[in-house]
Amino acid sequence: MKLLSTFFFVLLTLSSLQAQTTKDSIMFKRIADEVFTNGKAYENLRFLCKQAGPRLSGSPQAEKAVKETFRMMKEMGADTVCLQPCMVPHWVRGAKENAILVDAKGNPVSLNICALGNSVGTGKAGIKAEVIEVCSFKQLDSLGISGVKGKIVFYNFPMNPTYIETFRAYGEAGQFRGRGPGMAAKYGAVGVMVRSLASNIDDYPHTGATTYNDSFPKIPAIAVSTRHAEWVSNELKKKNGLQLYFRTECEMLPDVQSYNVVGELRGTEFPNEIITVGGHLDSWDLAEGAHDDGAGCVQSMEVINIYKRLGLKPKRTIRVVLFMNEENGLRGGRKYAELAKAENKKHLFALESDAGGFTPRAFGFSAGGDTLARLRNWVPLFTNYGVYKFTEGGGGADIGPLRSLGTTLSGLSPDSQRYFDHHHAANDTFEWVNKRELELGAVNMILLLYVVEQNGL
Q1: What radius of gyration, in Å, describes the C-alpha atoms of the chain?
Q2: Which pTM value belongs to this model?
Q3: Which of 3.40.50.150, 3.40.630.30, 3.40.630.10, 3.40.50.880 would CATH assign to domain 35-90+254-455?
Q4: What amino acid positions are annotated as catalytic residues?
Q5: CA 41 to CA 76: how far, in whole Å?
Q6: pLDDT tens digit string along 390-432?
Q7: Which fold has domain 94-249?
Q8: What is the pLDDT of residues 323-335, one digit of tens each?
């Protein structure tokens, strides 16, 4: 009799789980169908790119983006929309930037370059000096003051093409953009040129933030396109002592006030359990910031649109946050975490989209163990929409500061093979975003949020 009772209990449990899975599968399809037929992400991205344009922190375009996304979330029907003030850096590129290398035959050749973000400028006169190539910090150290002083250091470190995970290659190469100027200044360099962080060979220079070591002088820093990096390297092999001239007029102005834009769907059962989803509203000034990170912003706002259109009421509060100043300061993410800590609510989960509007492949999670194991039970329902795995290790720059509150962090992982063709470059424009891929990313983000707000962690 006891064995028979156990059998019927297991059968009942399995039947209940099957019923729940069927119910969730139906809801998943309702959500996906609504995004594909009545979604606003693609048109919102068009507006953000074409009407606001490049949105570097402190710029008039960033200010317009704040105003317009506030309006968008209000019109979608968010329960509340507010602005979170934060002081942000105000770096400006200036009117002119150019570079000329005198090649091995004595001919002056113009290079495709751009100033690195947060860099000091050369002034109107520019700088001219011998250029030396290094491929590692170890090589720079071996040259020392005698080999570097008074020269322009050219960091030529390609992104590793053998890595399928292109962000791994970006992380390795990124150290030269981030720390390279400070390291070169230590040995008396007068300027730095960095090979663009791009996985392909083309003519676009890619900008991005650099940092300085306060113990050494701040020296001007530029990025050069990958095609011209290859060419410069070949010329230096032909002849030592080549002269490089470059001019930039960038400068750092006093901090200005900007805002995170926050839209909220209030939880019906656990309103003090907060689920955050977002991307960063700022972008670099060379282009429209379509993939980085207009895509993440409009995908996040789509949560409000779809929940309201379907009449869904989340059990836990969902906050859509468009963070300001991810690119050259992270002030918005830190301010949000500071305010989150002060409000004394449980910040349960945070999801960020900041890897482009390409086809979604996976989600990464900061949590492991039982939490990740429970979440993985949902993977079979996600495979219908292009996400095939939930991996350990995830998050994002803007939600990272929430980790100290015990928040489980997650990041959307789209296919990354084309991302660094556009990242921080002038071709990061709306035309390079595919509507279907963008919407698939939004679908999967909303599905994940639905699972968490309904079931907790």
Answers
A1: 24
A2: 0.94
A3: 3.40.630.10
A4: 326
A5: 12
A6: 999 989 999 999 999 999 999 999 999 999 999 999 999 999 9
A7: Glucose Oxidase; domain 1 (3.50.30)
A8: 999 999 999 999 9
